[in-house]
Amino acid sequence: MTIERAAGALDGALEEVEQAIEHLVWSLDQGKSSAQLRHGHALADQHQAVADDMLGLAKEARAAIGALLGTLGGQFDLVGTRRALAMAQDCLNGLWSRLFTGFYSGEMLRARTAMPREKPTWAAWARGVEDALGRCPQPLQAANEALARCWEDLVERAGLLSVSVQATGQQIRVVAGRRGEGERSTEQETALAAGAGE
After folding, report:
1. What residues does each domain of the chain span?
2. For a pLDDT cut of 90, what percent of the chain falls above it?
3. pLDDT tens per residue, range 99-139
4. d(CA 20, CA 63)
5. Cα–Cα dist 113/86, whole Å
């Protein structure tokens, strides 16, 4: 897979992440809009703040990869590509962190589980939030896997770009990375070929 195709797949995966988080934000907000829940709840407010932050990170990751896709048709920019992937990586790390600390930490799980018993009017809200949360890990994991493929393709592309050729007399030395044990270097093979031609 080329970096162009890998980045396109990552963009698609990030779109699904964004959609899952938009659904979470909607569930948090929609549940609170009921007339019975007009006065709010501290846990609902905390969850809303975390979800809004997550949506911002998802949009930031998509913007970075979208900008990258716009540049990949021209001359390859190794540094710009690395920066875009690093930005997406930071955003995905932040999304996982906020998902678990903001929704799945022991404290948050206990509070959300207790909420319907303590305040029965919030039971439907809690169920809707659980359903929306259940939709988040799979697209996040798919985005992580797509990003890993982008990093692999970037490393391959960087390896091709870093091949250096030095001419010294009749010998050409090519530095392209480590050889396996027992393999001849290009320098050895070239020297042998030059000796055979004399």
Report:
1. 3-161, 164-197
2. 54
3. 999 999 999 999 988 888 888 888 888 899 999 999 999 99
4. 17
5. 36
Average pLDDT of the chain is 82
Task: Give the predicted TM-score (pTM) of the model.
Answer: 0.76
Dihedral of alpha carbons 90, 95, 101, 106, sign: negative
Tokens matching residue 3: 């970096």
Q: The dihedral of CA 118, 122, 123, 125: what is its sign?
A: negative
Q: Where are the beta strands (DSSP E) in the chain?
A: 164-168, 171-175
CATH of domain 3-161: 1.20.120.230
Share of the chain above pLDDT 70, in %: 75
Q: Please choose, from the candidates 140, 142, 137, the residue with its C-alpha nearest in 3D space to the C-alpha of residue 92.
A: 140
Structure tokens at 49: 């703040």
What token pair was written down for 75?
């001359």
Q: How far is CA 69 from the centre of its chain?
A: 15
Report the half-sphere exposure of 56 (CA within 13 A, side-chain side): 8
Task: Note whether 157 and 167 are within 8 A (CB).
Answer: no
- Nearby residues of 24 by Cβ (< 8 Å), 6 or more positions away: 51, 54, 129, 132, 133, 135, 136
